[in-house]
């Protein structure tokens, strides 16, 4: 893809990031939430020129790069200390959400099998990315993918607003809030945004928890592909799927976390890296905001939204209770 | 001279485009770490 095609959108993201940073200072609201709001307002009220679309679509690249750099700020000692129990909570809540969505979709709300599967993947693993990954493996139709993706985006928009309010009301610590967001919210971008909007510690816990949840995507895709292949569908399953669906930027994150804990970076270098990922997150979240289309959210079907809402409530309440006891 | 530069930049572009987005994120992150740690580039906030 030519640089010239990307340039208008990337310039728009940069302008949005600088504006969000300035507005956040003036208004006194977290810069990442301002960036998302800016993206939502611009794309829904004014609309971006079509020329900007390819460049704005790079926002996921900047999010991944920001997460890689965040590895340099992670305290590996703390992760090793409480990582085991937190990973068990991740496994339990992911499995529970998947099962609750599948059961409700099939047995209570009578949704089609593949739509239920897409909703279960999106709610339990990593939002729209999981919907798209599982859709390919189970040969879902475009309508089903659009429905499931719109439902996930609806809850991304709701949880971005609701989670920080609940965290403040309950006066949760950074570790509990971050892990709770990472284990129960849907897409990676909103998880990182609300985490850092709450506190730096919450942002780091939210990102680490969400990354370990995202790493399960390969297993879930493989499981669904095997299931639908056995049922006579044309989905194909392969161990290669595990690697194909694994979010590789996690490896970059882990490599930097290892280098950082070996003391490779000076404090000045670490500060510069932190600034770099803050800017990358700003670029990413302006772009993420432009993806939240209010018209699409309005057209989301009621039944898929109810199924996902119930699963979110179950997973969210259960994980919050367990984490409050754990920390 | 300009032909060899063109060939070099086309090669870089082709390799970049062939990379999966996750690996592109790793490359961007590694480049920033390189600029900060090797060249001492300060990044303001």
UniProtKB/TrEMBL annotation, chain A:
Keywords for this protein: Cell membrane, Membrane, Transmembrane, Transmembrane helix
What is the official name of this protein in its record?
A: Sulfate exporter family transporter
Q: Does the keyword Membrane apply?
A: yes
Q: Source organism lineage?
A: Archaea, Methanobacteriati, Methanobacteriota, Stenosarchaea group, Halobacteria
Q: Which domain of life is it from?
A: Archaea
Q: Which GO terms describe its cellular component?
A: plasma membrane
| Database matches in PANTHER family | INNER MEMBRANE PROTEIN YEIH-RELATED, UPF0324 MEMBRANE PROTEIN FN0533
- Asked if the record carries the keyword Transmembrane, the reply is yes
Topology within the bilayer? Multi-pass membrane protein
* Pfam families attached to this UniProt entry: Cons_hypoth698 (PF03601)
| Transmembrane domains' residue ranges | 30-49, 61-80, 86-105, 117-138, 144-165, 177-199, 211-229, 249-270, 276-295, 302-326
Q: Where in the cell is it found?
A: Cell membrane
Q: Which InterPro entries match?
A: UPF0324_pro
Predominant location of this chain? membrane
TrEMBL record, chain B:
Please list every transmembrane segment annotated in the UniProt record, as residue ranges. 23-43
Give the record's keywords alphabetically: Membrane, Transmembrane, Transmembrane helix
Domain of life, per lineage? Archaea
* Protein's name in the database: Uncharacterized protein
Q: What is the organism field in this record?
A: Natrinema altunense (strain JCM 12890 / CGMCC 1.3731 / AJ2)
Specify the taxonomic lineage: Archaea, Methanobacteriati, Methanobacteriota, Stenosarchaea group, Halobacteria
